[in-house]
């Protein structure tokens, strides 16, 4: 008797545990007769099915789902075996007026035949899952379209030091580079000398601080040709997952070939930013470039050099050979400047016979060497005008900001003071600014307005 009592007790306990499981299970469970009459339903199923029930009560599984899945009853009746899976993960799309949360709701239904008289339904709301899947598929399709179809976009990832991490067809299509560029700094897409290693890192820091960094300009193809390009760098959202690994993807780089669009606007930009006589950058372009460099230097301290060149005794050249001949000399000086300085430097005509060269990340020795190279070069040049060969010389004043306070006005003032000294000491020479020039020599100011 005791043994029989024990086994009844244990059966009861098992039954209770099972009921508890049914109630707490994280999916909807419904046990019903073969005709759909509900025997047991857990709270999740009730919550999912109740809004579908036409009369607001849940007595029959098939009737509850009739409006959205009318053949369930038939499918179940026609299932040939005594037990088994009638269907698995059937997606039931609820009608718009059945939407519970204002977005199309999708239920997943699995129906098991337990024996000739009973079925068990497992129901879950897969709306969020399906939406995520759809979004993933859509993102995948977009990415795929960009990578394989859209011919003017190139996508790449770069590591935290700006080295290309991967290569794909879009890069080949837009730039012509093959996978040998993996591991190179992304400046491989920039024409020679147009980007210093500091500029390269500046863009990454800017992307870190602002969420993205964009620039526009001429970029390089593998065959050496150039194209107008808009380049966007953005930090990858999940890059923390790679920890401190230096060779993990950290940013995405999107290059877009905008040659067609830029061809038209570039003419207008050229007109606004270049000097009409020499085609060098004009004052406006010079001051814009200077502000940008000073802004960069404020974030990441580095030296910035300015050389101001001035043709010597230029009034005399005009007086002797005429104004048009003087213009030819100015154009010759512009050519010499263009040939001497790097693409990353800004060479501008500041006005009259004065030219300014802004040299990012350049210290005093390097600036003096470049300025003197130009000076010496010019001294050997002869400008042929109407059968006459005109010789001329230039003087230069140099100032460098080494992370010390001061804007472009300070830099120009110092370079001007040094230039004044070069003129005073005999011309055809290069002089660097020192604090002594201002405090002891105290030269009069040459007039020049900033901007
Ligand atoms: N041909 C020509 N001359 C210009 C132009 N702009 C300014 N000038 C002339 O450049 C001359 C500058 O003369 P100054 O400022 O006296 O200087 P300088 O004769 O070069 O003497 P130093 O600078 O002291 O060596 C003036 O005669 C201006 O008319 C220009 O676009 N074309």
TrEMBL record:
Location of the GGDEF domain: 302-435
GO molecular function, one term: diguanylate cyclase activity
Known EC number: 2.7.7.65
Superkingdom in the source lineage: Bacteria
Record's keyword terms, sorted: Nucleotidyltransferase, Transferase
CDD domains per UniProt: GGDEF, PAS
Protein name in UniProt: Diguanylate cyclase
Chain segments annotated as coiled-coil in the UniProt record: none
